[in-house]
TrEMBL record:
<comment type="similarity">
    <text>Belongs to the SNAP family.</text>
</comment>
<keyword id="KW-0813">Transport</keyword>
<keyword id="KW-0653">Protein transport</keyword>
<dbReference type="GO" id="GO:0031201">
    <property type="term" value="C:SNARE complex"/>
</dbReference>
<keyword id="KW-0931">ER-Golgi transport</keyword>
<dbReference type="GO" id="GO:0019905">
    <property type="term" value="F:syntaxin binding"/>
</dbReference>
<dbReference type="GO" id="GO:0035494">
    <property type="term" value="P:SNARE complex disassembly"/>
</dbReference>
<dbReference type="GO" id="GO:0006886">
    <property type="term" value="P:intracellular protein transport"/>
</dbReference>
<dbReference type="GO" id="GO:0005483">
    <property type="term" value="F:soluble NSF attachment protein activity"/>
</dbReference>
<dbReference type="InterPro" id="IPR011990">
    <property type="entry name" value="TPR-like_helical_dom_sf"/>
</dbReference>
<dbReference type="GO" id="GO:0005774">
    <property type="term" value="C:vacuolar membrane"/>
</dbReference>
<protein>
    <recommendedName>
        <fullName>Alpha-soluble NSF attachment protein</fullName>
    </recommendedName>
</protein>
<dbReference type="InterPro" id="IPR000744">
    <property type="entry name" value="NSF_attach"/>
</dbReference>
<keyword id="KW-0472">Membrane</keyword>
<dbReference type="Pfam" id="PF14938">
    <property type="entry name" value="SNAP"/>
</dbReference>
<comment type="function">
    <text>Required for vesicular transport between the endoplasmic reticulum and the Golgi apparatus.</text>
</comment>
């Protein structure tokens, strides 16, 4: 079945190529010939059939070629759509090409003022970098997506992207950047979500410089008094005491107790265990 579909796709692609090579084709830019649009139609139809056959390379190339023709005919919207589709196909085959095509789509959408759509594609690139564990690259594109989403007043979505930036900064050991991101997300409105972001910032402080925690906790309480009465606050206080007593068994047990009643994410667990294993607890006595 796949072979038959691919053969049909190749026939359509060849028909498109014939249109490109036909006599007088390049006059179409000036003479209004429909040869260009016919060639584009052949390429996009071929791309869809290649997708059905899961031939991602050929599908990506077909949509890319359609996008290139769209650009020549100054149909930027269709070009952006085809480049984005090409990126989706190459994503399954060639990461570098996927990013290249997504970037072309982002540029076109941004020039058209379609910033929300551009942001969603930035997120796709960030997710692709995340899958490859290229956390530095993921941070760059999540931050770009966040900026575009804020510009379009999609603040909740923008904040979720920035949360990713903070998480990856911490994983990469860039604790000051992570703390700045989480503190920024906690304010200035200081809704109930401030508790979670102050908690994340505290965890980063534990990894970076726990001796600063006393002054940090005072600042967070002053900014959001309700924080002092939360389970998150009391867990941080307890873990600091465990560190001061060099009681790592209790440290691990306190995390297990908290996790049993308020599930910790993989990020929380990773960073809390990093703090446990990397600090010189004797210096905190």
């Amino acid at each position: 079945m796949a072979s038959h579909i691919e053969n049909k796709a190749k026939q359509l692609r060849d028909e498109g190529l014939k249109k490109l090579n036909s006599r007088g084709f390049f006059q179409s830019w000036f003479g209004g010939s429909d040869k260009a649009s016919e060639a584009i139609d052949y390429y996009t139809r071929a791309g869809n059939l290649f997708k059905m056959a899961k031939n991602w390379q050929e599908a990506g190339e077909a949509f890319r070629d359609a996008g290139d023709l769209n650009c020549k005919t100054q149909d930027d919207l269709e070009a952006a759509l085809n480049y984005s589709e090409a990126g989706n196909c190459f994503r399954k085959y060639d990461t570098a090409k996927a990013v290249q095509l997504y970037t072309k789509a982002i540029k076109l959408y941004s020039e058209m003022g379609r910033f929300f759509t551009a942001a969603k594609i930035e997120q796709k690139i960030a997710e692709l970098m995340e899958e490859l564990e290229d956390f530095s690259g993921a941070m760059v594109h999540y931050e770009l997506a966040s900026d575009l989403l804020h510009d379009e007043n999609h603040h909740t979505m923008a904040n979720k992207c920035m949360q990713k930036v903070g998480e990856f900064a911490a994983i990469e050991g860039k604790y000051q950047k992570a703390i700045k991101v989480f503190q920024g997300l906690a304010g200035p409105l200081l809704t109930y979500t401030a508790i979670e972001y102050f908690f994340r910032a505290c965890i980063c402080h534990l990894c970076n410089d726990p001796q600063m925690m006393e002054s940090v906790l005072i600042r967070y309480q002053e900014a959001y008094p309700k924080f002092k009465n939360t389970r998150e606050y009391h867990l941080i206080i307890t873990l600091l005491d465990c560190m001061a007593q060099n009681d790592m068994d209790r440290y691990a047990n306190e995390i297990r107790i908290y996790d049993g009643t308020g599930k910790l994410s993989n990020w929380h667990m990773t960073m809390l265990l990093r703090a446990k294993s990397s600090l010189d607890y004797e210096s905190l006595r």
